[in-house]
Amino acid sequence: MHIRILETGEPPAPLNREYGAYPAMFERMLAPLSSRFSFSTSAIFKGEAAPGPSEFDGLLITGSPSGVYDGDSWITNAEKLARLTAKAGKPQVGVCFGHQLMAQAFGGEVTKSDRGWGVGVHKYELNGSAPWMTPPARRIACAVSHQDQVVTPPPGARVLGGSDFCPNGVIEYAQGPAISFQPHPEFAHDFGAALLRLRAERTPKDRVETGLSSYKNRSDRELMGRWIANFFLNHAR
């Protein structure tokens, strides 16, 4: 099953050199989970053309420092691709910016939250289930790094999980098969902590300290990686 990773941004240069780009993180997470997976990347944020749905079996949309409401042409093209992928009936998964882009592409609303930055490991309560959510869980903990949020899910969407800070954190779409996550299962804790230190100046000091401390706790990133793999495999043609 060939997964095209739509690269919508990259880590700050020092972290990119040490940990690799976001597509590499997703490959490290997903490749060990099935010998059926192969991967390629389209760096749409750098001006590369968006692929057509005939070029892949599944689409994965990464995180980005950009906002989905910025109005850049590559963002418009990425939204168009999300809709074309849904129309083709091929599975797609979005994470962080990808979560917000899919929600906006399908008719939802995304804004910069007045709650400020979400950083560190956050806990999400799950209020729904789906066949790909195996093994099942009632809650998940995972790294987050975002200021924007989906404030209004698209028509027909099912919110499967969230938190007081981010109520619309896990979404399954009526257009699909399509799911998205606000948290970052691809982030190893050492990367998440390093990213937070680099962004400390734009985040309240107490939130930085709490966020860094939270990286000492466990997360469910491996479980979420398994869910994403299940989702792709369950909808493979």
Automatic annotation (TrEMBL):
InterPro entries associated with the record: ChyE-like (IPR044992), Class_I_gatase-like (IPR029062), GATASE (IPR017926)
Gene3D superfamilies, per database record: 3.40.50.880
Domain Glutamine amidotransferase as annotated: residue spans: 54-190
GO cellular component: cytosol
One Pfam family per UniProt: GATase
Stated name of the protein: Glutamine amidotransferase domain-containing protein
Lineage per the UniProt record: Bacteria, Pseudomonadati, Pseudomonadota, Alphaproteobacteria, Parvularculales
